[in-house]
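README: folding subset

This subset contains proteins for which both the sequence and a predicted structure token string are available. Records are stored as plain text. Below is the entry for Hydrogenase nickel incorporation protein HypB (223 residues), shown exactly as it appears on disk.
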Amino acid sequence: MHKIDVGAKILQANEEIAQENKEIFKKHGVFTVNIMSAPGAGKTSVLEETIKRLKDEFAIAVIEGDLQTSVDSDRIKALGIPAYQITTGNVCHLDARMIHNALHDFKLDGFDILFIENVGNLVCPAEFYLGEDLRAMVYSVVEGAEKPKKYPLMFHEVEVVLLNKIDLLPYAGVEIDELKRNVLEVNPTAKIFPISCRTGDGLDEWINWFRNRVKRFKENVKS
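--- output ---
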């Protein structure tokens, strides 16, 4: 009897399409970011604040993934930024094929940065590579200091962890140093930025790092 690992076949097929996506992004010189988090961590708020600070320097586009509604893409469009909505129904993540299909309608000509806001889920989105250049995670500090150890996959797979809602730390019973230690235990190379979209604390540090990351990408594409 031969066992067929359906999960492995799905991920292999996803990887092949993701590589096609990556070639498309590279061809257009677009730096692509996959933003992931649990529901309610503040992905869209982080995206809004990031766009506000960078839209005069870079041409930005956004692909939004949600189970239902276009609420988040409407928020992005209100900033004057093109946004394409992918509604997944009952699927708890975006995959490479969804992005590939979106690119038939959502053209990348003239853009510098493409943000992909993934479906709110702390596990599944990290399993599916989309062809992105950067994986960033938004984590609300009120979710607790223990989650990096309890749900390590996403923390392990990302390059950047944005610890959002630090203005709520006094009310959350969470020690930021403990949370940072737990993140680094799972992913020793992670870049960690404690931020608050409400107060603006920490956003300059994140934006400066991200801006330099995009510029390095652009220089490499030209060379």
